[in-house]
Specification:
Largest sheet: 2 strands, antiparallel
Structural class: mainly alpha
Shape: flat
Order of helices and strands: HEEHH
Low-confidence stretches: none
Radius of gyration: 26 Å
Length: about 130
């Protein structure tokens, strides 16, 4: 093996380790800031609730309450039967499962009709 390739792999691992170190330090700093932000949000929400208000405009900015929603499937069969029987197809997203398609391609040599595929060659480096 050429010394040049060995040196490049070594430099890559060193740079990746430095990147990970910086990312971890940043995560720790961000976690501390997030804790402060959470405390301030809690005080503001309690103040809003106590005053019976939804928003406040100040010289420094506007704070307002909003509600975010998210949903996950607890019983796929019940959910799918509801969607199917009521024809609420708009409640579903149109996508295929990558792992299932990979498996199908490995078994059958090709992907199902109607799909596009894209493959990207990447270089991975592991520590010895």
């Amino acid at each position: 093996m050429s010394a040049n390739l060995q040196e490049l792999v070594s430099k890559y691992i060193s740079a990746r380790d430095k990147k990970a170190q910086i990312a971890n330090e940043a995560k720790e700093k961000i976690a501390k800031i997030d804790a402060v932000l959470d405390k301030i949000e809690m005080v503001l929400l309690k103040s809003f609730d106590a005053a019976g208000i939804e928003s406040v405009k100040t010289a420094n900015g506007t704070a307002y309450k909003s509600t975010r929603s998210s949903y996950s499937v607890a019983d796929w069969e019940a959910t799918f039967n509801f969607i199917k029987s009521n024809e609420h197809w708009h409640m579903l997203e149109r996508r295929v499962n990558k792992t299932a398609i990979d498996s199908y391609k490995e078994t059958n040599g090709d992907i199902p009709p109607g799909l596009n595929s894209r493959f990207e060659v990447t270089l991975n480096i592991r520590r010895s």
